[in-house]
């Protein structure tokens, strides 16, 4: 019989146990070992680390058990200590507060928008790396005291749960999530009614959303939920599932996230007295509409669209996570137009001003599509990729927005991702380190903030070496690694048994699972989403060779694989099925397994238990790839293509580089063949022999030394604390300062100046370049010689203060392209001549030998521009300019 009404019955805790409520509803428990152990002690049988959820645990405790705990003096003492520790964590000064006290000009608040957040398995609002990164960003910000407000959507079905059919085909399940059973609280107005956010839709309809609060340590995470009674059925389903539905559905989700998210932030600040954010961080293009909402807010204050745009841009940071255009959301311009303006949302903001922000105006772009990443870049004065290599790929990919500039000058920087060590480091690893430096210092080190007792010069945010690890003995490290491997074996067998039961196998068929994996065999892990570029099945390229590696008589390996294909990606599902069918083979199924339903709970066992973490994407399509970072923090070595973060931090002491054929003129099939052969050879000739090579004490001495080096030298680099400090110092602080500088009058002046410069730029040109002194006329000059240059510039009605004139010089290739360019300013040397040209002069001193060349360019110049490339305007000489196009230096 089906119930006609559903509601949640909450437990009533005895007075001595009331602090458990606050501990359960602040997600700090998900990375604070002592708090988790407190909940485990409340019900050891009901608490499993992989599925841990204190809210559910408290709801399942019997009245008798609650009474028993309320009378347990030892338990109440631990509860009091945990409660006091949380209070100190929430209220005490941390790194950010210390920086402000020392005089740093930092923003009073930052709003961080993301379409997904992976904070804990108990709050399944993530699909993969983007969400896990966002969750780690919030947690690291909390540990450092950064005044962040997170903003996202609450998906009633989350992403999806994955199972396998008997034939190994991925099947999706969407369990309904009840917010009342999650670690969430409804944001309410002062009178107790739920706070509401409302968006106007075409046809006079409205989209209503309530706001749920997740407490991520010190950081509030606001999640908008459209499943409210005020909505019609179609609007109720806007937040039904993550990355589901067609274009109309996705557009509404992204409008709610961006526009509704800003309104939710305003509501939160009004209700709590939290300072309004000075900086808005758009994590990927999905939340890009937040900039339009902030423009709408400013127009009634007397600013026109262009001036409001300048204010918004100054205080916005945009992070791109995709290295391929196909990963970007693009909508039909007509669809976008229907949802905005007087008939839809953002009344008062002209649609004809909105649409150009997302238009692909570059060669090869599709002008009838509205590109969310393009809008994100145009609405943000500061933008970044998520690794050094990804920054370079992004500058190339979006270079069409800055025509006339070399990709290296495109104003997209990079901040390499990091991972939140307290979340991902196994308790056993933490205890081993804490035994060397003490528990308090170990917590500080993992959080990535300043460590008590460090000299001031070491408290500036540079990654610290974890030198204390060098004092841990080889036997201790090896015993730890075997223990973690053994835990993984147990976890794999449990999950594999459950998977086969769901696939229809009977108990009598599954006795073989007791022999799956071996805690003494080299264990390789591979787990991630399953788009084609990540090449889940590259390891299957030569199946006979893989079987030989798995079953090697003296150097065997075993592999644990996990991953989800997008529900609409049948190609990805076929890759999963291919891997599953290979792993089902009775000849190798004890050495290779596929675990369905990859998520945070599984990952927290998988990373520590593996000896080697495998990553073999098509380079350079992996933006960062943080799974290998999480593995490294637990002493796991990386075996990876030089892509993402591994490209900049690879070192032979940390693992192995899989050679790539990305620079070769080979087709995809040939490339896979070459790179899979390289992978097999590495495992057979270098990885496995090193693992099994035992020294005099029976230990793999060289392997252990690599584990130690990974922890000591790589560990500090991959911390989310390091990443968040970089965002604060390199992006948030400059954005806040730029925003403060744009008072209304200044914003109007800047917008008017930009309009004047754009209108006049057709008349700006480099009319003549000559060498006044220096022996370059013959096509050569001596190293160290100084060339005096004279240039005549037409400014098209602009003034010299409106521009900067530069010499760009460096080595040249056979096509006269300048590489490793350096720039040198030229100064005005006289007024206008009769032809309305301005004279500029300056020296050029070549600092290298060989083929050398220079050119001259004119750029807009204004004190409030973040970079000289910001407007995307540049004037260069024509081929008929005269002297000075290129000079050969010897």
Describe this protein's structure:
With 890 residues, the protein is an alpha/beta fold. The chain folds into four domains: 15-91, no CATH class; 95-414, Glycogen Phosphorylase B (Rossmann fold, 3-Layer(aba) Sandwich); 515-715, Rossmann fold, CATH 3.40.50.2000; 761-883, Immunoglobulin-like, CATH 2.60.40. 37% of the residues lie in helices and 18% in strands. The protein is built from 28 helices and 28 strands. Strands 1, 2, 5, 6, 7, 8, 9, 10, 13 and 14 form a ten-stranded mixed sheet that branches. It has an eight-stranded mixed sheet with strand order 21-23-26-25-24-27-28-22, with no helix packed on it. Helix 21 (570-583) links the parallel strand 16 (557-562) and strand 17. The longest helix has 29 residues, at 474-502. Its cofactor is pyridoxal 5'-phosphate. Belongs to the glycogen phosphorylase family.
Could you give the topology of this structure?
Layout: H1 19-25, H2 33-42, H3 54-60, H4 63-70, H5 73-91, H6 95-101, E1 110-113, H7 129-144, E2 148-153, E3 161-164, E4 170-173, E5 185-186, E6 196-200, E7 206-216, E8 219-225, H8 233-236, H9 247-272, E9 279-283, H10 290-298, H11 305-314, E10 316-319, E11 330-332, H12 333-338, H13 351-354, E12 369-371, H14 372-378, E13 382-385, H15 388-397, E14 413-414, H16 421-424, H17 427-437, H18 439-447, H19 474-502, E15 522-527, H20 543-550, E16 557-562, H21 570-583, E17 592-595, H22 600-609, E18 612-615, H23 627-632, E19 637-641, H24 644-649, E20 655-658, H25 668-692, H26 701-714, H27 720-741, H28 744-760, E21 764-773, E22 780-781, E23 787-795, E24 803-812, E25 818-832, E26 837-844, E27 850-860, E28 887-889
Parallel strand pairs: 1-2, 1-9, 2-8, 9-10, 10-13, 13-14, 15-16, 15-18, 16-17, 18-19, 19-20, 22-28
Antiparallel strand pairs: 3-4, 5-7, 6-7, 7-8, 11-12, 21-23, 23-26, 24-25, 24-27, 25-26, 27-28
Keywords: Allosteric enzyme, Carbohydrate metabolism, Glycosyltransferase, Pyridoxal phosphate, Transferase
EC number: 2.4.1.1
Domain DUF3417: 13-123
């Amino acid at each position: 019989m089906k119930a006609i009404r559903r509601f949640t019955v909450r437990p009533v805790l005895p007075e001595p146990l009331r602090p458990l409520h606050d501990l359960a509803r602040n997600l700090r428990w998900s990375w604070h070992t002592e708090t988790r152990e407190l909940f485990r002690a409340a019900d050891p049988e009901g608490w499993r680390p992989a599925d841990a959820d204190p809210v559910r645990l408290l709801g399942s405790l019997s009245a008798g058990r609650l009474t028993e705990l309320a009378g347990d003096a030892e338990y109440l003492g631990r509860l009091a200590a945990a409660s006091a520790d949380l209070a100190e964590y929430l209220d005490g000064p941390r790194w950010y507060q210390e920086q402000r006290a020392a005089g740093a000009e930092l923003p009073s608040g930052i709003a961080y928008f993301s379409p997904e957040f992976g904070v804990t398995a108990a709050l399944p609002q993530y699909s993969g790396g983007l969400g896990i990164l966002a969750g780690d960003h919030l947690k690291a910000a909390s540990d450092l005291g950064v005044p962040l407000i997170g903003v996202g959507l609450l998906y009633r079905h989350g992403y999806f749960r994955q199972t396998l059919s008997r034939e190994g085909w991925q099947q999706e399940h969407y369990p309904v999530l009840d917010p009342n059973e999650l670690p969430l609280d409804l944001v309410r107005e002062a009178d107790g009614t739920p706070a509401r956010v409302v968006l106007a839709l075409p046809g006079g309809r409205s989209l209503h959303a309530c706001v749920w609060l997740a407490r991520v340590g010190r950081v509030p995470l606001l999640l908008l939920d459209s499943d409210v009674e005020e909505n019609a059925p179609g609007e109720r389903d806007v937040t039904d599932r993550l990355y589901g539905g067609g274009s109309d559905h996705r557009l509404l989700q992204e409008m709610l996230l961006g526009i509704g998210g800003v309104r939710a932030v305003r509501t939160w600040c009004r209700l709590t007295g939290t300072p309004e954010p000075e900086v808005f961080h758009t994590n990927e293009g999905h939340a890009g509409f937040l900039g339009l909402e902030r423009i709408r807010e400013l127009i009634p204050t007397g600013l026109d669209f262009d001036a409001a745009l300048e204010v918004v841009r100054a205080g916005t940071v945009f992070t791109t996570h995709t290295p391929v255009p196909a990963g970007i959301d693009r909508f039909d311009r007509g669809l976008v137009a229907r949802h905005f303006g007087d008939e839809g949302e953002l009344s008062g903001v002209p649609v004809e001003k909105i649409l150009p922000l997302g238009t692909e105006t570059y060669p090869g772009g599709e002008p009838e599509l509205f590109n969310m990443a393009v809008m994100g870049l145009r609405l943000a004065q500061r933008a970044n990729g998520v690794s050094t290599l990804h920054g370079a790929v992004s500058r190339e990919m979006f270079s069409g927005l800055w025509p006339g500039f070399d990709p290296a000058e495109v104003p997209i920087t990079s901040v390499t991702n990091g991972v939140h060590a307290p979340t991902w480091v196994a308790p056993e690893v933490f205890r081993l380190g804490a035994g060397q430096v003490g528990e308090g210092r170990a917590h500080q080190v993992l959080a990535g903030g300043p460590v008590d007792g460090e000299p001031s010069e070491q408290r500036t945010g540079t990654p610290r070496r974890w030198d204390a690890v060098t004092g841990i003995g080889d036997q201790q490290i090896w015993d730890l690694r075997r223990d973690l491997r053994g835990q993984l074996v147990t976890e794999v067998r449990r999950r594999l048994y459950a998977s086969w039961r769901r696939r229809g196998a009977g108990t009598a068929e599954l006795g073989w699972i007791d022999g799956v994996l071996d805690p003494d065999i080299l264990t390789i892990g591979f787990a991630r989403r399953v788009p084609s570029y990540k090449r889940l099945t590259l390891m299957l390229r030569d199946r006979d060779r893989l079987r030989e590696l798995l079953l090697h008589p003296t150097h065997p390996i075993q592999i644990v694989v996990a991953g989800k294909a997008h529900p609409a990606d049948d190609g990805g599902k076929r890759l999963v099925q291919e891997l599953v069918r290979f792993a089902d083979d009775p000849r190798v199924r004890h050495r290779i397994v596929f675990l369905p339903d990859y998520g945070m709970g599984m990952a927290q066992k998988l990373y520590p238990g593996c000896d080697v973490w495998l990553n073999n994407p098509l380079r350079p399509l992996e933006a960062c790839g943080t799974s290998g970072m999480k593995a490294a923090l637990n002493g796991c070595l990386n075996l990876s293509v030089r892509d993402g973060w591994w490209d900049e931090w690879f070192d032979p002491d940390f693992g192995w580089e899989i050679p790539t054929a990305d620079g070769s003129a080979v087709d995809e099939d040939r490339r896979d063949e070459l790179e899979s052969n390289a992978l097999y050879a590495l495992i057979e000739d270098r990885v496995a022999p090193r693992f099994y090579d035992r020294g005099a004490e029976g230990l793999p001495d060289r392997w252990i030394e690599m584990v130690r080096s990974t922890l000591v030298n790589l560990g500090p680099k991959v911390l989310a604390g390091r990443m968040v400090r970089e965002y604060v110092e390199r992006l948030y602080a400059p954005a806040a300062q730029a925003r403060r500088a744009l008072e209304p009058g200044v914003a109007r002046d800047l917008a008017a100046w930009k309009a004047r410069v754009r209108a006049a730029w057709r008349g700006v040109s480099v009319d003549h370049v000559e060498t006044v002194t220096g022996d370059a006329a013959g096509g050569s000059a001596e190293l160290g010689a100084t060339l005096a240059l004279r240039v005549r510039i037409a400014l098209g009605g602009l003034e010299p203060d409106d521009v900067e004139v530069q010499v760009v010089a460096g080595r040249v290739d056979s096509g006269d392209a300048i590489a490793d360019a350096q720039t040198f300013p030229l100064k005005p040397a006289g007024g206008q001549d009769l032809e309305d040209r301005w004279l500029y002069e300056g020296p050029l001193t070549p600092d290298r030998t060989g083929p050398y060349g220079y050119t001259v360019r004119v750029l807009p110049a204004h004190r409030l521009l973040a970079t000289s490339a910001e407007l995307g305007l540049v004037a260069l000489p024509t081929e008929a300019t005269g002297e000075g196009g290129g000079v050969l230096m010897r």
